[in-house]
Write a structure and sequence with these properties.
Helix content: 25-40%
CATH architecture of the largest domain: 3-Layer(aba) Sandwich
CATH superfamily of the largest domain: Zn peptidases
CATH class of the largest domain: Alpha Beta
Length: about 425
């Protein structure tokens, strides 16, 4: 059984308030690059409750909220880090994505899975500490960051400008039954193929960028990567061409289909193993294109990594993350997981398919902050209906484990 202070904390986890907060967050659209309205809401919400709030300007007019529950001093600090940007919505929702609904053990709404429910859970954990009157020695930092879906724009800003903490937990939506400590490296690049435009009447004189891109795409799919396989990550490395556009000029003018295209771009996503680096991945892809160019002198290409911000994709590379098993934050979360659930997590370490994704733990780890992934899970309503949800019971378990972890970590000697 937990000690008296721990039990008091667990009794202070307010599930109703947590669901209210999650629903308020759903009502505020926060697509990547458009998160400021939600950041301001959270700044007001947390500032009115006594947190020290820093509304950080990451890009001009683009804000994220960093709120700190100050400790008494002399203890280690813990960061709970969740992103407030959300993925684009698929077609075919049955529900209005901006009108959240609670149905049984599920809460539905746009952005609730990735990852407004996780942010609500981590704020609820901090609120349990505050409302219970528990005094922590170290600071408890709530980082509600932007641009994780662009490779970690907000957390990269946080790493450079502070505040940081001694340890961290990132409540990504991998399910409260999983404690994840490994993720793939993730990079996105723009591959440009250059041609020579001519009017259709002189097509024979042209070099067609779109036609030459048709040579590049199969080469991308068949890149011979340099790597050492890992049994726990059998699907890595993997690569995907996710978007393509071509036209006349570097702005892809589409008003001239009577001209041969001289500029064509694909956006490529690569997931790669610990031991590989973004530069080794780029070199492998470069080598594949060099082979095409050696056989065809008209094949000209450029690799842009990261892509131009106008594409609104990854601006930051996420290098692979692999937390050592002896780190204190992992032992603390596991210990309090057992207290809350009475059992062991189903998944620990590399958990598939979640470890094929990337997240902000890599930036924290590179900054010297031991961290891991533990957050509520859910999904879409069915294979054909994209309405996304999170399990409420997961949110409650995560909030309780994070509450006890805060009590533990923030009372360690600094």
């Amino acid at each position: 059984m937990p000690n008296t202070d721990a039990q008091t904390l667990l009794n202070s986890v307010d599930s109703a308030a947590m669901l209210d907060l999650a629903q308020e967050m759903v009502r505020i659209p926060s697509f990547k690059t458009e998160e400021s309205d939600l950041a301001r809401f959270l700044a007001e919400f947390l500032g009115s409750r006594g947190y020290d709030v820093d509304l950080q300007e990451v890009d001009p007019g683009r804000f994220q909220t960093i709120a700190t529950l100050k400790g008494a001093g002399g203890g280690k600090s813990l960061m709970l880090n969740g992103h407030i940007d959300m993925d684009p919505l698929a077609m075919g929702w049955n529900r209005d994505p901006w009108t959240p609904s609670v149905e049984g053990n599920r809460i539905f709404g746009g952005g609730i899975r990735n990852m407004k429910a996780g942010v609500a859970s981590m704020i609820t954990a901090a609120e349990a500490v505050r409302l219970s009157g528990t005094k922590l020695n170290g600071d408890l930092v709530l980082a509600c960051v932007v641009g994780e879906l662009q490779g970690g724009v907000g957390t990269s800003h946080l790493v450079k400008n502070g505040p940081l903490a001694d340890m961290a937990v990132v409540p990504e939506p991998f399910g409260s039954e999983n404690v994840v400590t490994v993720h793939a490296g993730v990079l996105e690049m723009a591959v440009h193929v250059l041609g020579n435009s001519r009017h259709i009447s002189r097509k024979e004189e042209a070099v067609d960028a779109i036609a030459n891109m048709c040579k590049a795409v199969p080469a991308i799919g068949n890149v011979d990567f340099t790597y050492e396989p890992r049994a726990d990550l059998p699907g890595l490395p993997r690569i995907n061409v996710g978007a393509i556009i071509g036209g006349r000029g570097r702005d892809y003018d589409l008003r001239g289909p009577n001209f041969v295209s001289d500029f064509c771009t694909v956006i490529v996503d690569v997931r790669y193993l610990p031991g590989m680096t973004s530069q080794s991945v780029k070199a492998d892809i470069q080598r594949a294109f060099d082979a095409i160019a050696a056989a065809d002198p008209d094949f000209r290409f450029e690799i842009e990594m990261p892509p131009d911000p106008k594409h609104k994709v990854f601006r930051v590379v996420m290098e692979p993350f692999d937390l050592p098993r002896d780190e204190y934050i992992l032992q603390s979360v596991l210990r309090h997981y057992r207290t809350v659930t009475g059992g062991e997590p189903e998944g620990l370490g590399a958990v598939l398919p979640y470890s094929y994704t990337g997240d902000d733990t890599c930036h924290l780890w590179q900054a010297g902050v031991p961290c891991l992934l533990f957050g509520p899970g859910g999904g879409s309503e069915s294979d054909t209906i994209p309405d996304e949800y999170i399990r409420i019971s997961d949110m409650e378990e995560v909030a309780k484990v994070l509450t006890l972890t805060a009590l533990d970590v923030c009372n360690l000697p600094a």
